[in-house]
Design a protein that fits this description.
Length: 283
């Protein structure tokens, strides 16, 4: 009997604004995967560019959902966590990893908690440090530069960094426990933006860049992470996977920019899905 890879995406739902599960679910599905979801919180909108949003913490639902999945003997090829709704969820998701992972399961943690040097409004410094426990259980982690600083307990240095700083940071992050680290939002030239990766198994550092489009675009971290996982599960090596993720994210931003769409609703990733399918060799 033929099988289809199954992913569990553990993220929040922002009812308006393209990020988290409203990005992860369609991208992973388009990439060919049976995608199950475990919502960590529900927000009326995402937290960037909108005021007065509602927020419902779903901590109490995680264990019952996990228990039911376990009773059904559901297997997952990948476990993918993002924004968590409370400090208690760190242990709950860590337990879920232990319960459902096997020798062939890819565990990816995107420690979604901060950007531009600042923690998100619903996060605390204690929760940020607690995220290191979850990262220790991952095969691959995908922080941005701000999240990397919080995970390492270091000061955020902004955009004034060298290649040596990036590579040292990658290796420090790997020492938290994950064998592979991808650092997003990396730039050494003003007109280029991309990501850096480190594989502790090979000791190799790799980079991927594309043209930088000026402006701040919400949800691009979730687009990048979901695309990266899609490429890895489609058997692309890490260095090729990060380039696919950078290129697709750029394509989404480019389409949004050209259409002059309101940025606070996130990038127009839907119109770029055919591009992603082609990049993954699925068309």
């Amino acid at each position: 009997m033929n099988t289809q890879k199954r992913v569990a995406a553990i993220h929040d739902i922002s009812c308006v604004g393209r990020c988290s599960l409203t990005v992860a679910l369609p991208i992973l599905s388009a990439a060919g995967f049976d995608t199950s979801v475990l919502p960590t919180a529900i927000l009326s909108t995402h937290t960037g560019g909108f005021e007065g949003f509602t927020y419902r913490d779903l901590t109490e639902d995680i264990k019952p959902i996990s228990n039911h999945w376990q009773s059904l003997n559901i297997k997952f090829d990948a476990l993918y966590s993002g924004f968590l709704g409370s400090f208690e969820q760190i242990d709950l998701v860590a337990d879920l990893f232990d319960t459902f992972r096997n020798d062939n399961t890819l565990v990816m943690v995107d420690p979604v908690m901060a950007d531009n040097g600042v923690l998100y409004s619903v996060y605390s410094p204690e929760m940020a440090m607690g995220m290191t426990k979850l990262c220790a259980k991952a095969d691959i982690i995908v922080p941005n530069l701000t999240e990397a600083a919080f995970l390492l307990g270091e000061e955020y240095i902004g955009e004034n960094y060298s290649k040596e700083y990036i590579e040292t940071t990658l290796k420090k992050l790997s020492s938290l426990g994950a064998k592979k680290v991808v650092l997003s939002g990396v730039s050494f030239e003003k007109d280029q933006l991309g990501a850096a990766a480190f594989d502790s198994g090979t000791g190799k550092v790799s980079y991927a860049f594309n043209d930088k489009i000026e402006g701040y675009f919400h949800g691009t971290g979730d687009v990048f992470g979901s695309t990266l996982l899609s490429a890895l599960l489609n058997e692309f090596p890490l260095e090729e996977a990060i380039q696919i993720a950078v290129d697709y994210t750029h394509e989404c931003i480019s389409l949004t920019h050209k259409a002059e769409l309101e940025k606070r609703y996130g990038v127009c990733f839907e119109r770029a899905i055919p591009y992603l399918i082609k990049q993954l060799g699925l068309s």
